Automatic annotation (TrEMBL):
GO annotation (BP), single: regulation of gene expression
Cofactors demanded by this protein: Mg(2+)
Domain RNase III: 16-140
DRBM domain: residues covered: 167-236
Organism lineage string: Bacteria, Pseudomonadati, Planctomycetota, Planctomycetia, Pirellulales
Lineage: superkingdom: Bacteria
Record-listed Mg(2+) binding positions: 54, 126, 129
GO molecular function: double-stranded RNA binding; metal ion binding; ribonuclease III activity; rRNA binding
Organism: Novipirellula herctigrandis
Keywords noted in UniProt: Cytoplasm, Endonuclease, Hydrolase, Magnesium, Metal-binding, mRNA processing, Nuclease, RNA-binding, rRNA processing, rRNA-binding, tRNA processing
Gene encoding the protein: rnc
Protein's recorded name: Ribonuclease 3
Gene Ontology cellular-component annotations: cytoplasm
Pfam families: dsrm (PF00035), Ribonucleas_3_3 (PF14622)
Cellular localisation: Cytoplasm
Amino acid sequence: MDDIDGVDGGDQASKLAQCQKIIDYWFKDESILLSALTHASGASHRLDSNERLEFLGDAVLGLTVCQWLYEEYPEYNEGDLTKIKSYVVSRRACGKIACSLGLDRCLIVGRGVTRNRSFPKSLVSDVFESVVAAVYLDGGSEVICDRLKIWLADEVRIAVESQGASNFKSVLQQYAQRELSSTPVYRLVKEIGPDHRKAFLIEAVIGDQQFTAAWGNNKKDAEQRAASNALAHLHEQPIPYPEEDRD
């Protein structure tokens, strides 16, 4: 194995081994992984760096996440799926995952970069995408898909819950069907006020579980708030819309 810009062969071999152990995949062609881990500053030629693999990895990551979300969340519309996907494949998310896996410790860089106390977030994010591409090329789509579903699970969950701020009903339905094998229903508990200014108290019900009812100025808003209350209860969090609170 040739040395690259001051990085000796032994160090390269160590980083290749460390990376393969981290991602639980052993390459048939280690030269692909070597390229994936090599930053332009540590490459003898720019085409030997991970930039081309980063380009491919971005596409592989996007397609894999899109198919995953499409199949896993059939109740979400195109706008919801786009918001979740954008969060999951963002530089912030990719950099976070790369660091949590320890891929930043496997980077092969030039001496100028190693003087820094930590790598730039963009650099760490890039190596995640290049490793994704390397696994895809060496092992195929099924191999990288299986690993991405493990690596990205928390980010998908966070994205689903955060985008659900405007669609708690969809989030609750997905959770109830996945975890409780049931579908939520919404029951009108009370309505008050004149026709032009009614308020509705609605509760979410899943199986034999009734959750804290919530008020809304229309049934749609009341159902969303009731769903939010149910999600809070299921995740052992404070109820955001106590029954006694009314707009």
